[in-house]
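sry for the spam today, last one i promise. struct tokens for design, 280 residues
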């Protein structure tokens, strides 16, 4: 069974937070009302939230935390795991380690999208890879202790120049023995980068731990031209039973987007991957 989450951030989060709703109290309340199973928290630092408050909201609204996304660590704090500057890179590792520990408290995963870093001007790709893998090994040391899985998200070429496709991601991670690392495809990025969304999901299915859903234009599923039957058929073939999180633009307004996303996805969630019990 696939569980469905929605991306939210706190009220202070800047425009770089790529979420549907802002403000935890109202977001959790609406997420339950609209039929979501979980919340993906877009955070900058561990200090952004009170763990107790979030846990109590989870109990109140019968929701789980599916994951912590870390795009703001890059976009707001300017930190990344492949920074050639040792001090800045260590700072990125520190901030993300704290988020990995927090994820351990929630029993959820942590994504590495843009916060992994990119190939800087004058830098060689091999150097970026080496720095990123070194930082990742430090994060995995923490992740293994707290039981958090780190998921690396291929992101399209217009946002980053390092790990654009699922194959590149799998290739880079293949030397890592830890079971606490995996791939997190985002169908919006896949639509730009993959030769075939369905085939890539099938080919790398063993390592897919989480998925981001949005339509071809980043609007709610159903408002673009992405083939969700292809996506869910592939997820079904690999026996996917993890989280699918809706990471969409809050357009034309957050409530309308969140409602349209779940309305479009509901039939797929019921038809594929063992069906969906419970809400909605
Ligand atoms: C983050 O999950 C993502 O998909 C990126 O496009 C954000 O820039
Ligand atoms: Mn994404």
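last one done:
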């Amino acid at each position: 069974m696939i569980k469905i989450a929605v991306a939210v951030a706190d009220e202070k989060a800047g425009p770089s937070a790529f979420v549907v709703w802002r403000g935890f109290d109202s977001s959790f309340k609406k997420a339950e009302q609209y039929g979501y199973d979980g919340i993906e928290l877009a955070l900058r630092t561990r200090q952004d939230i009170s763990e107790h408050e979030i846990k109590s909201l989870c109990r109140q609204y019968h929701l789980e935390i599916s994951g912590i996304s870390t795009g703001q660590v890059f976009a707001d704090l300017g930190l990344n795991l492949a920074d050639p500057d040792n001090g800045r890179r260590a700072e990125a590792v520190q901030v993300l380690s704290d988020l990995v520990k927090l994820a351990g408290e929630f029993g959820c995963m942590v994504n590495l999208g843009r916060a992994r870093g990119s190939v800087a001007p004058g830098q060689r790709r091999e150097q970026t890879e080496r720095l990123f893998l070194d930082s990742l090994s430090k994060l995995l040391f923490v992740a293994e202790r707290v039981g958090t899985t780190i998921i690396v998200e291929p992101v399209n070429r217009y946002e980053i120049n390092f790990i654009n496709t699922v194959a590149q991601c799998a290739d880079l991670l293949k030397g890592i023995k830890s079971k606490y690392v995996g791939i997190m495809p985002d169908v919006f990025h896949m639509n730009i980068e993959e030769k075939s969304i369905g085939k890539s999901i099938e080919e790398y299915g063993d390592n897919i731990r989480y998925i981001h859903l949005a339509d071809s234009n980043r609007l709610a599923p159903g408002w673009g031209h992405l083939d969700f039957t292809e996506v869910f058929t592939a997820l079904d073939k690999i026996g996917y039973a993890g989280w699918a999180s809706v990471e969409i633009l809050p357009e034309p307004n957050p409530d309308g987007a969140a409602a349209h996303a779940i309305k479009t996805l509901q039939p797929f969630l019921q038809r594929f991957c063992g069906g969906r019990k419970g809400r909605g």
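Residues 18, 69, 71, 113-114, 153, 155, 159, 186, 212, 247 surround L-Erythrulose (ligand 1) (CB under 6 Å). ok im logging off now
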